[in-house]
Structures are given as C-alpha cells and as structure tokens.
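Troubleshooting log. The previous run stalled partway through. Resubmitting the same two chains, unchanged.
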Amino acid sequence: MEHVDHILIVDDDREIRELVGNYLKKNGLRTTVVADGRQMRAFLDSTPVDLIVLDIMMPGDDGLMLCRELRAGKHKSTPILMLTARNDETDRIIGLEMGADDYLTKPFAARELLARINAVLRRTRMLPPNLAVTESGRLIAFGRWRLDTSARHLLDDDGTMVTLSGAEYRLLRVFLDHPQRVLNRDQLLNLTQGRDADLFDRSIDLLVSRLRQRLLDDAREPAYIKTVRSEGYVFSLPVEILGAQT
Amino acid sequence: MNLSLHWPRTLASRLSLIFLVGLILAQALSFGAQFYERYESAKSTMLGNLETDVSTSIAILDRLPADERASWLQRLNRPNYGYVLGEGEPGTPMNMQEPPMAVASINEAMNPAYKLTYTDIPGTQKHFQGHLRLSDGNPLTIDVRPTMLPISPWLPAVLLGQLALLIGCTWLAVRIAIRPLTRLAQAVETLDPNAHAVHLDEKGPTEVAYAAKAFNAMQARIAAYLKERMQLLAAISHDLQTPITRMKLRAEFMDESVEKDKLWNDLGEIEHLVREGVAYARSVHGATEATCRTDLDSFLDSLVFDYQDMGKDVQLDGKSATVIDTRPHALRRVLVNLVDNALKFAGAAEMHVQALTNGKLSVKVMDRGPGIAEEELAQVMEPFYRVESSRNRSTGGTGLGLAIAQQLALAIGGSLVLSNRQGGGLCAELTLPKGIAHP
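Second attempt completed without errors. Output:
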C-alpha cells in the first residue's frame, strides 16, 4: 500500500486547525489536529508523523519553544512547518533558527500550505541521509565564505553581508548540500526550483555565472563551482557546517 | 496712520528700536535738563558780573581825564563786551519790546545815572551796541558780542561713547531675550514625534524654563498619542489575522463560482491592508533590527534578480562599490515598496545607484508611469493618502506603501524624496548615509 503522509497540526484556534485538517485530508493526506503542546507531546509519544505544522502564537508553550523541544528530542528529524501571524523577518529567522524547515505567514491560503508541505517533504527525502542539512540556523563555511542559512545571506571573512537573490540562495544550498559531486542541469533545476519548472537549461548556466560573481569566483578559473564539460557543475571545495553563529 | 507700514518685521529689530529710541530720548532729556540748568546758572552769574563790571568800568572811564581813557580801554575789555570811545558803528535801532537779557542787566547797572540807546549792528557776527554820554558829554559805546556758551571739546566724544554703550546694551538685551525664543522655534520646527525627541534645556530665566518645560511636555504627549495610535493599529491589524485566516480557509471549501472569486478577492484586499497596517505600525515604532555591514551592490543586484526571476521588468544601473552599515530588511522593504509602486503604475522600474559628491549614496527608483501632480508629491508619503487616480482599490493599494518606505528610510538614517521625471514618470530617490568604499 502506498504510504500516506501523516501531518500533525498544532494550533490553538479550533476552527483554523479543523479547516486546515479537512483541507489536507481532502487532498490525500492523513491529518491529526491538536490544540497545544501538551496534546502534541501525548500524540507524538504514541504515533510518529511525517510533518508537523506548528503555530507560533499559542498560549502556554508557544511554537518556538515546542520547535526547539522537538529538535532537541527524538523528533529532531521530523520536518516542521511554522505558522506565524507576523509578517516579520525576525520571526521567520527565529523560527528557522529554532529548527523549522519552512514557515508560512497567516493569513495563508490552504493550497499554499499544501504546496509548502509537499515541498518540505520532497526536500527532506531528496537529501542524502548523511548530508541532511536542515535549515537550523547553522552557518556553512567554505573557502572564505560563510552562508547563514536562516537569514539566507553570505558573510565574507570580515563579516560583511553579501545578499543573495532567492534563486541564487537555492542553487548555492544545492551545491553546499552536495559538495564535490557532479550535478547535471536537470538535477540542479529540479533541486533548485523544487518543482518541475519549465525554465530553459540556459537559466541554470546564467544562475551559476551570477553565483560565481557573487562569490567573486573567476569564471575562467573558478575555485568554487567548476564546470564539468557536457555533464554539469561541481562544487569543488570542502564544506564545513558550523554549529553556532559567530 | 501708516506707522504700522514701517514697523520692522522681526521682534529683535522691534525691541531694539523701542529700547534704543527710549534710551536715547531719556538720555537726551536728562542731558537737556542739565544743560538748561547749567545755562541758567551761568547766565545769572554772568549777568550779575556784567552788571557790576559794566557799572565799575563806566564809573572808571567817567572819572578818568578824557585823554587817558583810550589807554584804559584795553584793560576794561572782556571777551564778550568792550568799550569804544565815540558814537560807534551805524546800525538799526533795537526793538525794545524784546531786548536781549544783557540789555536789561546793563540798564539795571546804569540807571538812573546814564540813559542808553541801543542799536543792532548787522554783519557776519551780529552784535549790539549801547550808546551813552559820559558826564563830560563825550560819547561812549558799549559793544556787546553775545557768543555761544563754550562747549568742552571732549563732550561730543562722551556723547558718542554713550550712544555706543546704548547700542551695545540694547543688542545684548535683545539677544538674551530673543535667543530662547529662536531656540524654541527651531525645536518646534524640527519636531518629529516619530524620531527621537529633541529635549529642550529647561534652564535659564523663569519664563524661558517654563516655555521649555511646556514644550517638552507637549512633545512627550504627542509621542504618547502617536504610540497609542500605532499600538491600536497594530492590535487591530494583528487580531484581524486570525478571523481572516479562518475566512480564507472556509472560502477554499466553497464550490467554484463567481461569488467565491469575489469573496477571495475581498479577503485578499483585507489581508493586504492588515499586513501593511502592521508593517506601518512597526516602521513607526522604530526599527528593532540590528545593523549589519552590507555590500550594497550585491544587495541591489539580488533584489533586482528576484524581481526578474518573477518575470518583472526591473533594471539596475550603476555601481556603488560600497559597504554600508544598515538594517538590511528595512532597506529592502523601502526599495521593494518603491519598486512595487513603479511596477503597479508603469509596469516597469529602473533603479540607479551612485555615490554622491558629499559621500552619501543615492538609490533612485524610476518609472515612466503617470507620475504624481506636483502639489501632491509631499502628501503621498502620508499614511492612507492616495492620489486621485488610485482611489479605486483595484489599482490603488492601501495608501501605506510610501508611508512605510518613508518611515523606514528615516529609521535607517536616510531620506526619501519624490519628484517627477523629465519626460514623464516618477523618480523616488533614497539617500543613504555614507558607506565605506571597498575595492
């Protein structure tokens, strides 16, 4: 029998959690809804789930606290999707630092939530288990650069922030998650877009050249992203995951 | 009366004028009084002297033998009057209704022994002569040449000195009186309740301290009102999010229909308004975000690429080669709001970055849209203000986009200025503080 993903929804608003639950159920997912951290813990003790949708603003233990608790315990690899009521970058960053995989701002459309859930599930499954880097506020160091995965920007060796566009960030993440491994354009496109986007092959090349510029990498003799003729690209430097932010 | 027409405009010059005119008048009065008093006493002494002196001199001349008189004349002459043997010079008989005071004195001294007749002698120096006959019948003339009272040469210098002192004191007094007022006016002018309060010094004279205290209190009150308003806006916006979420979720369960689409659009609008409301409230509260050393070129590049990746026509031109200390999310929000505005009204946006000659950085967001009427340029940055053409919600936003951009620009130490472009369209120029050039 095909595996049906089981989603746990934690939200203090009864209507919202039931509406979300019903929508996801209608779209072929298994759902369980609970109202707070206590109920969540009780449920997780008996049943493993594939993904947890966690509201940040809750009375008692709030979402951020629960998220940290989950990451510290035996559910550290269960993907978490945060719901935040504030359209605020700080909330997003804190959420991601606490170990959430993605976030969604209220009010959201249920189909948007469904798309995000599917994207997170696909992403976590695609990653090789030994390099399952979740977005947990860690810094990834390579060469003279550090990538801040929660704020999604680069820091150079003297701490100056170099901003990346969304696409650049996603491509760099793909390279950093698969270092020293040749990736062809299809794979890059797939991993970068997260869905089968009908973009030209060319756009990956363009994106790679932009990323090289950003990394101050010489296009003729690149130190970071090397071109493998007729195959694709390879990130040629070793990658180190730093535990704490400096 | 057209006095008011010539009344000077500034309080300083008015006060100076009053002080100066008043003081000079008072000074002139006291000087005049003293002068008059001195004149009177000098006159009475002089006339007294004249009386005795003239009668003595005439008596001497009268008793001297006629041939010895000429040799005595020299000794009897005085600076203001002298004696001439003979009939004197021809002249017009004096009008005896208003004789000079010296005439009365001389008459007093001479009566009743001698009868005098007086004549005015015209000429460059007018004087008069008194004619009499001595006891031997020979004529004698008293020549009286009234002169001005002698004025000491240092007196004008003293007067000038006094005038200078008056002007100096007036200037000082006016300055002391005006300065706190000027300071208060400046403080009121620069008063921006959203920015940090300008605290006026509550020292100085009582009235000044009182005004400063009142101003500071007013400022605190305005800030409190604003904060309250913002908290209200934030609270309403925030609390609306849960019901909107429920409604959106419920709407998704409805069957496809025109009604559903309409409901969906309405919810979208409410949601947008709420979001902008929260963003505006937060932007006014001042940024909580930490500053960060940011490479400006990569910052702008990535912003433009994000737009281009969404298929939007946004171009960037120019390089700054600068690292700036800024709050990246606030800066991004400012630029996103400006670019979104350009895209909404013109469908395309051009960005231009350059370092200005004064070291500051200019980031322009330009479009070829309809622009904004000159008289509305300042108002569009006020919250909830919409230009007439965007009143219609389907094209217009919440009226908060530019207000947020403006607030955040201030919060990151910059400024935002809108202007219409030559050839049509709007140019929004964000000026950022000086950065550090990097190679």
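Takeaways: Chain A touches chain B at residues 13, 15-16, 19-20, 22-23, 85-90, 106-111, 153, 159-168, 210, 214 (CB under 8 Å). Residues 110-126 of chain A form the longest helix (17 residues).
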